[in-house]
Amino acid sequence: MARPRLTGVLLVGGASTRFGSPKALAPLAGETLATRAWRALGEACDERIAVGKRKDALQLPFELLDDGSEIRAALAGVVAGLRAASSELAVVLPVDTPLVTPSLLRKLAAACAEAAVTQTGPLPAAFARAALPVLERRLHEGRLALHEALEELETGRITVDAELLTNVNTPDDLRRLG
Fold it and tell me: Per the domain annotation, does 28 fall within a domain?
C-alpha cells in the first residue's frame, strides 16, 4: 500500500520569552533551528508549510503563512496549518525541538487516526484533516490547551527515544545541545 501524502507544518510562532530572542533564528550546528526543522520536514513530507506571525518579521529562508490569530498558542498554528494543507494528513513540528528526525515524523503519521503524539505530547504530533472541526471549535472558544484537545480526538500514541524530543526553551538548553 502506498504511503498517503503528508504535509509538514512548522510552528515558528511563540513569544520566546524565556529564550530572550526568536528561537527560530537561534543557531545550532551551523544552521538555525528553523532551517534545521524545515529540512527534517522536507525529508519526511510531500509539502511543507511554515506557520507563525508575519508581524514578527522573522528573516526566514522560506515563506511564512500567518496564522491569522492575535493569540499566541500552538493551537492557532495547528489550525492554520491544517487549513492550508493540501493533504489529509499533517505532521506538526515546533521549531524548538531540533532533534526530531524525519523517521519520528513518519512514525507519528503512521500512528495517526485523528491525531498522534509521542509519550511526552502534545507536540510534535500528527493530525488528520478530520480533527479540524474539534480544533477550530476549541480555538474559537478560547480553549487553547492542545493536550486537552487530544482528549476529544482519536489519538494514537507512540514511544520514542526521549532525547529526540528535547525542547529548547532557554539559551542554556541550546548550549547543552551544541
Answer: yes
Give the pLDDT confidence of 6-25 residue by residue, as tens digits: 999 999 976 677 888 899 99
Do 63 and 17 form a contact (C-beta atoms < 8 A)?
no
Domain region containing 157: 7-177
> How many domains, in total, are found in the chain?
1
Instruction: Flag whether 2 is in a domain.
Output: no
Give the CATH number for residue 164: 3.90.550.10
Would the pTM count as exceeding 0.90?
A: yes
Each residue of 68-77: pLDDT tens digit?
Answer: 999 999 999 9
Residue 1 has pLDDT above 60, yes or no: no
> Could you tell me how far CA 97 lies from the centroid of its own chain?
9
Which of 136, 109, 107, 103 has its CA nearest to residue 9? 109
Cα of 14 vs its chain's centroid, Å: 11
Peptide bond before residue 122 is cis, with ω within 30 degrees of 0 = yes
The label of the residue with cell 498558542 reads 73
Element (H, E) at 76: helix 74-84
Predicted local distance difference test score (pLDDT) of residue 105: 98
Asked, for residue 132, whether it belongs to a domain, the answer is yes
Q: How far apart are the first and last CA of the chain?
A: 40
